[in-house]
Amino acid sequence: MNRNKAPCLRCIFFFREPPSTLWYGTLVLVMSVVGHEQEDMGPAHSTWMIPFPERPWVAFCLVLPIIVIWCWALLDDSHPTLLGLLFVLDASSRRPTDAQFITQAAAVEFPSPIDYAPIQQACARNGGFRDGLLFTCEGQHGGVGMVRNQILKCVRYAMHAGAAIVVPSMSKRNPKDISDIETIYEAPLEYLFDRHAFVNHLTAACPGMRVYDSEDQFPHYSDRVPENLTIVGDQFDPEHPPEGIRQPREWRHSFEGWLDGQGVQVSPQKPVHVKIDQAFLEYPVRDDGREFANEYGKILSFRHETRDLAARVLLEMRNKFNLPIDPSRPINPDTYYGAHLRLEKDAVEAWAPEDGWRFSNMEDQFQEQFKNLARFPGLDVVYVASGNLTVVDLFRQELARRVEVDSSSTDKPGPYRGRNITVVTKHDLLPDKTVIDSLPFDQQGLVDFLVMFRASAFMGVGHSSFPWNVALRRHELSRYESIANEGTDLLRDELSVIMGKRSDYHHIDPFATGLWP
């Protein structure tokens, strides 16, 4: 027996692991030490027993780490996850292969899988679905966040009315002028979203609603009321406050009164076709309850190709910078910082600095990002999302200058002293740049959205729906219920910041109350 031979253990640090992992790791620790000792004792001692009396060093090796692990765990109040120190026998065996990583990462688009129950409950209280009523929502326009929200609103109104629906469509942005979003070029839902998932989710979440690929599939459509009708969501409450229409649950009653006023009666043999036109953030998304608000947006998944590309971006960051990214988790701590720079042509024209939009000024937007990044000394990989690569280069140069100044200063050290910060984009990370470069502007934005969603820390501006969508989706994982808890910014929780106060903006659109995350 070799008394000098000690168990070989690998020590790894992990953060915010679930309790089950801690139990498992402790068991592995015990079994590995005991098993190693049994090997030393030979075949005569092949039964499993803990040799505390004869081997005091074994007792020490077992007891001390367990005490440390569980004391640390018990002191951590971040339920349901724990901050701990874990010894495992072979951590590398749990690291997914590149192919596994991409598959797992592409499957994580939301904080949690969809729960149909809150949607089913809301759908069931609408008074019932009726044959002969068809809603369409074609030509939705705007950026990714607004198009997504317009589609969700249209479907919500169809639920209220008890109508069937045609799979929505959208207007394509002008590729030669990205500020031109109201074009005549119509694109199907799958231009940005997963059509198959949408139909499946909506059918499961609202079983009474019928979903059609086109109007012509609707029963007796050729015999419909001759004139197609058009309404907007806030038509029955045009003077509503910024927070949205005041009685969304009375929408059906108002709608039926409006149909009567048009001299129209719904019947299966003579259907009625109603087009929902585009209004702006008029539906109070929390009216159906927090659970519904968190789950409803999950009926719209981004298209598969963009989810795979986002997964590849995460993989490249993991491999290139040795980041501890678990592809199965929505957000990993201590990995990378996400900065959304809204300084593209369409943004600067729509929200001009001279009109009071402070953060359309590049220097002001950069400064807020730099101040926020300084709060996270462990995040030295900065992923930037912007449709303007010239802006990204300027951001990179200015950040490098600040690091150099802080590191060379002999006075009071600055926040970037000694840091080795790398600024990257999807274009820097994806091996085959021809794929991402071939995608239209808004499809490229989907990749950025998904990577931003999973950042350890995130910041964006308050006048764009894109960062609000990202931050509100991340907020589902926050310990806070309300959105402004850790400062004076428009949204500030432990995961995300929407920069600035209300006084920093010409006005604030009701994104916080009008967007489904």
UniProtKB/TrEMBL annotation:
GO MF, one example: transferase activity
Please list the GO biological process terms of this entry: fucose metabolic process
Write down the Gene3D superfamilies for this protein, in alphabetical order. Answer: 3.40.50.11350
Q: Is Ligase one of the keywords UniProt gives this record? A: no
The highest taxon in the source lineage is Eukaryota
The record lists the membrane-crossing segments as 57-75
**Matches recorded under InterPro entries:** GDP-Fuc_O-FucTrfase (IPR019378)
The record's keywords, sorted A to Z, are: Carbohydrate metabolism, Fucose metabolism, Membrane, Transferase, Transmembrane, Transmembrane helix
Could you tell me which Pfam families the record lists for this protein? O-FucT (PF10250)
Name used for this protein in its record: Alternative oxidase
Organism of this sequence: Pyricularia oryzae (Rice blast fungus)
Q: What is the lineage of its organism?
A: Eukaryota, Fungi, Dikarya, Ascomycota, Pezizomycotina
